[in-house]
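Running this now, will post back.
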Amino acid sequence: MKKTKQLTLTALLGAIAFMLIFFNFPIPILSPFAELDLSAVPELIGGFMMGPVGATGIITVKLLLKLLLQGSSSMLTGEVQNFILECTFVIPAALYYRKKKKKKGAVIGLVIGAVISVIASVFTNVYLIFPAYIR
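Update: finished.
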């Protein structure tokens, strides 16, 4: 019964995250393609509730729905980058919150996830995404 509940919650939060992809806002001081994407909110909620495996499932459902219903305009490099960066943001936050289940633990987990995600974005852009997109 527990696996059915977790699977249902993963699918539901993944569908909500997919719907939130359409509610993004440009960040004025950054490049034109940089946008604030609200789809990380259900992923974080799921990560705090179900742990890193549940969060990864939510991210996967979101991206599969996007690919099925919209396709890719970036030769899949945007989706790969989204998966990598969402995982590097949500998984550390969920792991830290698992040890410190308080509001402070969630905030510290989010900061840790943000720092790791920024570091990962630099390396994946330089060594993975840009070279794949240029070819």
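The mean pLDDT is 91. More later if anyone needs it.
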